[in-house]
């Protein structure tokens, strides 16, 4: 689906408006809403699987027999009894909307009865809704657009709602949700593609979902490759996680447990992969209960007078290490304080460093979390590092990397390409040069595809500009024959039109040259994508001047629109005269101006897409010109255990990589920045209105 971000936003706003029109709080509302999303997605998967089964039976690929629930499971769908099918529920509600809460509750019960992993998981408290509010919510998720949504998109919608509820702190202070770009970065580093995968603080199960995406991206079958294990202390969060897995067609063994004291799956020393985002800086762990725990081979990180562990960060770090098999890898989010903490924590860190299993450390700027602004670090262990890296650690400072999330001025995320670039640095550290070159080659492929799309976008913009210009020339001829026009406005029109003509003339020449350059580059590079480092550098240098021309043309396209809009505005004033109005339709040209603006945006966006991939090629090649790992000031350095020892066992990347001069963002999008500010202001205004309404209602209730 195109414009997925807008689609997610529209869905959320519509659903949240329904809540605003009821007396429900976010804590009341979020589980039932996630249940409706689950029910809709289950129906979509069921319908797709039903069609597949029918097609296979018709083609003779499957015997014509009674269809079993297992046939649906094999197609990563749940078999839905009639009472749990979205369309059936909506059809029954048409005749009696008052019974809708019971219908939805019965649907959840029916699914649990037929599918053991979800027993006791799905929400059934739909009686809290006014029937009409629940009907509106159900209809929101019953549009044709939603019905046609496929698995990955629906998974994103589910995750988006989880994130929004996290922002509202609807559950456990929002700590159940780890931003997907951080999770995906961890997955990209440790590459969990087989065996047992444990998350001992699993929250909403995001680590498992991203692992599945990673496996399927490489053509694997998650169910056959890995087994997911999780521990989570909060029962409601476990329900969220199991629903999240089910939405993605996955299963996992998730136990209710406090990991400080329990190893419910008995996985000590057995895991192939461990991933987690544990709670930071916990100070209430009973030291007496854990002092003999075999999962703490490095000892306790300090105990206070109350016999509590002073800070639980190094308990978690020790658990993650000890859960691994002798070939296992771990990746986890940790407070930035932990990598340089002193006293007993430093002693634990020293012992961990001396194992040689610390592999990659990544610093993340503040603002990546929805409910806290603190910076963090991603730690990675590898119990099976080769001899040539056993004494080394990759220090990667990614605090300058990331962008504001769409529609937010506070929350950051990595773009897909930024995550790939971080992965590429790890590949070079591991000596996987071919993967680095393959990524650059893939960027060239995307670059050529974007180049090929430019002529069409420019052509449509040009055609509309020609239409507008024809209107202007007609007005120019007409006003010469009208004697009583305002002389100042006539002069202004002629001057503006002359400026537009000059700008078009310059633009036409630059456009033709650029289109010829793009065609040549596409022909020479697109048909034989460069695979070696030398050829990739040559191709990049060939495109460097083209990228500069693209940036210039973007400015020209914007200028043409602004000049045309100005001429349209003056012409509209002149059209107050009947003679001019006879040849110039103000309303039609106003619509034409709006259309021209939309086409301008589309053209500029396409041109930006083109230089976007070139920019990532430049980013990688400028920092790693030989396609080999090397130190980059302010970004990366491979350090030895000796260097870490000399730095008092500090594992903070910034301590080693240094500080690079601040880079000027040549691609800063002022227009988008203004739009983001407008979006945030609108949201704040909306929130203030809602708060005022609530305060007023509370006062009225007090008065009553």
Give a topology summary.
Elements: H1 4-20, H2 26-58, H3 69-73, H4 86-95, H5 100-114, H6 131-140, H7 144-147, H8 151-167, H9 180-190, E1 195-199, H10 206-217, H11 222-225, E2 226-232, H12 235-247, E3 253-256, E4 271-276, H13 287-290, H14 313-323, E5 324-335, H15 343-354, E6 358-364, E7 376-382, E8 392-397, E9 403-404, E10 412-413, H16 416-429, H17 433-479, H18 487-526, H19 533-574, H20 578-581, H21 586-623, E11 636-640, H22 641-646, H23 653-657, H24 670-703
Helix pairs in contact: 1-6, 2-8, 2-12, 4-5, 9-10, 9-16, 16-17, 17-18, 17-19, 17-21, 18-19, 19-21
What keyword list fits this structure?
704 residues; alpha/beta; 9-stranded mixed beta sheet; two-stranded antiparallel ribbon; 9% strand
The average pLDDT is: 88
> How would the global form be characterised?
globular
Give the neighbour order of strands across the main sheet. Answer: 3-2-1-4-5-7-6-8-11
Task: Report the uncertain regions.
Answer: none
Strand content: 5-15%
Number of strands: 11
Count of separate DSSP helical elements: 24
- Give the distance, in angstroms, between the N- and C-terminal Cα atoms: 50 Å
> What share of residues is helical?
55-70%
Short description:
The chain is α/β, with parallel strands linked by helices and 704 residues long.
Please tell me about this protein's structure:
With 704 residues, the chain is of the alpha/beta class. The protein has helices at residues 4-20, 26-58, 69-73, 86-95, 100-114, 131-140, 144-147, 151-167, 180-190, 206-217, 222-225, 235-247, 287-290, 313-323, 343-354, 416-429, 433-479, 487-526, 533-574, 578-581, 586-623, 641-646, 653-657, 670-703; strands at residues 195-199, 226-232, 253-256, 271-276, 324-335, 358-364, 376-382, 392-397, 403-404, 412-413, 636-640. A nine-stranded mixed beta sheet has the order 3-2-1-4-5-7-6-8-11. Strands 9-10 form a two-stranded antiparallel ribbon. Helix 4 packs antiparallel against helix 5, helix 17 (433-479) runs antiparallel to helix 18 and helix 17 packs parallel to helix 19. The two termini are 50 Å apart.
């Amino acid at each position: 689906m195109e414009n997925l971000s807008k689609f997610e936003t529209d869905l959320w706003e519509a659903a949240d408006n329904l809540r605003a029109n009821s007396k429900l709080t976010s804590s009341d509302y979020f589980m039932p809403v996630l249940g409706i999303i689950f029910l809709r997605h289950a129906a979509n998967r069921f319908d797709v699987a039903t069609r597949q089964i029918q097609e296979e039976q018709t083609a003779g690929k499957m015997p014509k027999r009674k269809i079993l629930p297992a046939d649906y499971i094999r197609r990563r769908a749940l078999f839905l009894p009639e009472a749990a099918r979205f369309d059936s529920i909506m059809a029954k509600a048409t005749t009696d909307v008052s019974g809708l809460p019971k219908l939805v509750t019965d649907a959840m019960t029916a699914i649990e009865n037929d599918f053991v992993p979800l027993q006791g998981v799905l929400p059934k408290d739909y009686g809290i809704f006014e029937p009409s509010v629940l009907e509106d919510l159900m209809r929101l998720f019953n549009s044709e657009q939603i019905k046609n949504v496929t698995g990955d998109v629906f998974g994103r919608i589910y995750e988006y709602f989880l994130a929004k509820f996290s922002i509202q702190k609807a559950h456990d202070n929002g700590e159940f949700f780890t931003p997907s770009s951080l999770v995906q970065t961890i997955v990209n580093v440790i590459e969990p593609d087989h065996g047992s995968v444990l998350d001992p603080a699993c929250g909403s199960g995001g680590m498992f979902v991203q692992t599945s995406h990673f496996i399927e991206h490489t053509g694997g079958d998650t169910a056959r490759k890995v087994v997911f294990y999780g521990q989570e202390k909060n029962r409601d969060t476990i329900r969220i996680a199991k629903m999240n897995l089910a939405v993605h067609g996955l299963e996992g063994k998730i136990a209710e447990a406090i990991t400080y004291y329990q190893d419910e799956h008995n996985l000590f020393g057995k895991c192939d992969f461990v991933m987690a985002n544990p709670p930071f800086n916990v100070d209430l762990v009973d030291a007496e209960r854990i002092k003999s725990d075999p999962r703490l081979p490095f000892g306790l990180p300090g105990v206070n007078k109350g016999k509590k562990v002073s800070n639980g960060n190094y308990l978690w770090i020790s658990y993650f290490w000890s859960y691994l098999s002798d070939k296992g890898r771990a990746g986890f989010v940790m407070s930035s304080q932990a990598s340089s903490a002193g006293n007993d924590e430093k002693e634990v860190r020293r012992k961990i460093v001396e194992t040689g299993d610390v592999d990659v450390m990544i610093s993340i700027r503040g603002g990546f979390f929805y409910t806290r602004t603190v910076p963090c670090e991603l730690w990675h262990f590898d119990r099976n590092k080769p001899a040539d890296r056993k004494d080394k650690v990759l220090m990667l400072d990614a605090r300058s990397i990331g962008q504001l999330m769409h529609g937010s001025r506070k929350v950051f995320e990595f773009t897909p390409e930024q995550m790939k670039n971080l992965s590429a640095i790890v590949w070079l550290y591991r000596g996987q040069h071919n993967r680095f070159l393959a990524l650059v080659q893939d960027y060239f492929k995307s670059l050529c595809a974007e180049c090929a799309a430019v002529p069409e976008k420019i052509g449509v913009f040009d055609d509309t500009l020609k239409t507008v210009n024809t209107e202007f020339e007609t007005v120019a001829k007409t006003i010469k024959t009208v004697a009583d026009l305002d002389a100042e406005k006539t002069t202004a029109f002629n001057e503006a039109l002359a400026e537009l003509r000059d700008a078009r003339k310059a633009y036409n020449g630059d456009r033709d040259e650029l289109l010829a350059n793009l065609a040549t580059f596409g022909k020479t590079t697109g048909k034989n994508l460069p695979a070696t480092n030398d050829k990739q550098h040559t191709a990049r240098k060939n495109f460097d001047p083209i990228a500069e021309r693209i940036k210039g043309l973007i400015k020209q396209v914007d200028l043409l629109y602004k000049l045309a809009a100005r001429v349209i505005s003056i012409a509209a004033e002149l059209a107050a005269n009947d003679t001019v109005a006879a040849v110039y339709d103000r309303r039609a040209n106003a619509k034409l101006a709006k259309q021209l603006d939309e086409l301008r945006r589309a053209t500029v966006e396409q041109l930006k897409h083109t230089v976007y991939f070139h920019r990532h090629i430049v980013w990688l090649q400028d920092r790693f010109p030989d396609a080999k790992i090397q130190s980059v000031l302010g970004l990366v350095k491979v350090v030895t255990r000796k260097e870490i020892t000399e730095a008092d066992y500090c594992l903070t990347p910034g301590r080693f990589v240094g500080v690079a001069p601040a880079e000027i963002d040549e691609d800063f999008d002022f227009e988008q920045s203004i739009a983001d500010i407008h979006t945030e202001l609108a949201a704040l205004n909306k929130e203030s209105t809602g708060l005022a309404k609530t305060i007023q209602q509370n006062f009225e209730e007090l008065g009553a």
